[in-house]
Design brief:
Elements lengths: L3 H17 L28 H4 L3 E2 L19 H7 L2 E15 L2 E10 L13 E6 L6 H7 L7 E10 L5 E9 L2 H17 L2
Parallel strand pairs: 1-6
Antiparallel strand pairs: 2-3, 2-5, 3-4, 5-6
Helix pairs in contact: 3-5
Length: about 200
């Protein structure tokens, strides 16, 4: 039961809420153009983009090379860190394979496991990454297969306008090391400092 003294503040609060309208219920018209279900304003995955977001897993990230190049020598690391929709540590939670004839496609379900290394541009924390026979990571996926499950990476994920009229993700997975993390954080700070 509300006391007489509490009625006036309650009425005021209800009046404010009524004038503001429903909170947290965005209509389709209120969603930003960059929402996950829209391709408006998304770049196409052509030209330079497939070099940066190359659907690849670095060999050192799965233990194929212990002496991988320094992250700072990766000519695309800074650009990936500054333009990706999500830059974060991820863990592979599922690995599935679709086979049609002799063509196989790997699907990696990945989950963001820590605070992102850069401000994310999408709210998603789980992604499905596709590795087609034409993907650079296909050889690694075929060699490692289900052992990818449970591995962690530093992921750079970006949405592009897909051919089917829906957004599609392209990505790059780097080793989950302190050196890569430091290089990414440095690239993000440099990007913020040079922003207008």
């Amino acid at each position: 039961m509300i006391s007489a003294a509490g009625v006036a503040p309650l009425r005021l609060a209800l009046a404010v809420l009524a004038s503001v309208g429903p909170v947290g219920c965005a209509t389709d018209q209120e969603r930003p153009a960059m929402s996950a279900d829209s391709i408006d304003g998304l770049p196409t995955w052509e030209g330079h983009a497939p070099e940066v977001f190359d659907d690849n897993i670095e060999p050192a990230a799965v233990g194929f090379s212990l002496d991988g190049p320094s992250p700072r020598s990766d000519r695309f690391l800074r650009e990936r860190a500054q333009t990706a929709d999500v830059v974060a540590r991820v863990r592979v939670s599922t690995v599935t394979v679709d086979t049609v004839g002799e063509q196989s496609t790997y699907h990696l379900g990945v989950q963001v496991i820590d605070a992102p290394l850069a401000t994310p541009r999408v709210p998603d924390r789980a992604f499905e990454l596709h590795i087609r026979p034409t993907s650079r990571a296909f050889g690694i996926a075929k060699a490692v297969d289900a052992r990818l499950r449970g591995l962690t990476f530093i992921a750079f994920i970006r949405r592009f306008a897909g051919e089917a009229g829906e957004p599609e993700f392209h990505w790059h997975l780097s080793p989950d090391t302190a050196e890569v993390t430091a290089a990414v954080k440095e690239a993000v700070v440099l990007g913020e400092l040079s922003a207008p």
